[in-house]
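Dear colleagues,

As part of the handover before I leave the project, I'm documenting each prediction I ran so the next person doesn't have to rerun anything. This entry is a single chain, and its sequence is reproduced below.
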Amino acid sequence: MRIAENWKDYRIIDTSDGEKLEKWGGISLVRPDPQIIWKTPKKSPLWDSADGHYFRSQSGGGQWEFKRKIPESWNVYYKKLVFNIRPTGFKHTGLFPEQAVNWDFMADKIRNANREISVLNLFAYTGGATLACAEAGATVCHVDASKGMVQWARDNANTSGLSEKPIRWIVDDCEKFIAREIRRGRRYDAIIMDPPSYGRGPGGEVWKLENSIYDLVKLCTGVLSENPLFFLINSYTTGLSPSVMGYILGSLLTEKFGGNVSFDEIGLPVESSGMVLPCGSTAIWQK
């Protein structure tokens, strides 16, 4: 497992009985996590005094309960990057801290490429990967279907001092955007994608990652440059193993471009137990 262990402003203090106890800067939160099926003793007093606790509803969704008034949003820092954190109605905070292990990989590849690198970040959410690549010196195209998430990403770029970097901010359906980029003849040296496990299209059609990922990756090969640097896929879908994503990348890229493929779970360290909490999977093709 690849571990995001370089955080100083984010910590998982403990995990038990379907929940994790976290510190985001100076604010403590308890959030549900379906991976945490163990029921070990909750030893930290912060379990009972956490600033915020997200409770799931039996009818779906859930809600936050707060022990004290906390800011509507606040900042956490990762190296030179600054992220605006705020609890949302879907338990999320606007950042997946386990992705820091991928940010470090991408930044290192870009800095050592010894050439200009253009990056396409699809399903780009609030821009963690976009900021990491831009800070490392790449030109980035950030694409997400949610206008609110793209604005959140722009705010993160601003607080990180990256608002003047060459970033294109695109609100669009990712698949349709790729098809248009192919017709335009635009090419990218690196592609990042973090597609949802499940969703619905504008016409109500069901989108399932397992059924769509191969065709999506195949479509994306049409916007790769002649000398691509990397192609990275994230997944939080339990039915899609890291090896399957790796095989997809290998079958579509290695014959044409060479390079190699790696795949693994990614995770975050847990202070109380010394274990690592699995937080999804990543497959990477790289030159």
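Helices lie at 46-49, 100-111, 128-135, 147-159, 174-184, 209-220, 242-257. The longest helix spans residues 242-257.

All the best with the project,
I.
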